[in-house]
Every structure is written in structure tokens, then in C-alpha cells.
Amino acid sequence: YWPAGEQAIKSIAHISRNIPIVIIHATDDQCLPYEDARALYAGLRAQERDNVYFITCENSYDHVNILQNDNNKQTLLRKILQRHQ
Q1: Which secondary-structure segment (H or E) carries 63?
Q2: DSSP string of 13-28?
Q3: Degrees to nearest 5, angle at CA 41 with 40 and 45
Q4: Model confidence over 19-52: pLDDT tens digits?
Q5: Three-state DSSP class for 77?
């Protein structure tokens, strides 16, 4: 993400359809609005993609360690990735 750069929501048509996309976002992220991530997910799903997933994390998290202390979400992510091997 780069505020001055191309925004993913404006280039959905150019995002590869052949790869799984997992969006993981905290509800009160201080850098990127949660609603923007939900809009990206909705836009991708509107193109009838079945390989797009959205995982919500409550509260604020460090972007690097967002799943570090959440075993349930780690398991969910593993299942998603295994589905697309």
C-alpha cells in the first residue's frame, strides 16, 4: 500500500484470477481503513471469484504479527492455503 500509488480497489480487473487472495485486516487499523479492505474483498467477490477470502481481526494489530496470538485464525489460514495447493 502506498497512498500516492495505484490503489488495489481501482485496479481489480488487473489482479490475477489464478491465485488465491487472502485479505487479513484489523477492525481498528490505524493505517488502512477496515472499510477499504472490505470494499476490495466485495469488489473481487463481485467478479465471481471463489478464491478470495477475508479474515477479520478485532482490535488493533501490528501488520507483521496480526495472527501471531490467534491459533484459530492461523488454522483457518492454513486450511485456505491447503485448499489451493
Answers
A1: none
A2: GGS-SSS-EEEEEETT
A3: 120
A4: 899 999 988 888 888 898 999 999 999 988 989 9
A5: helix
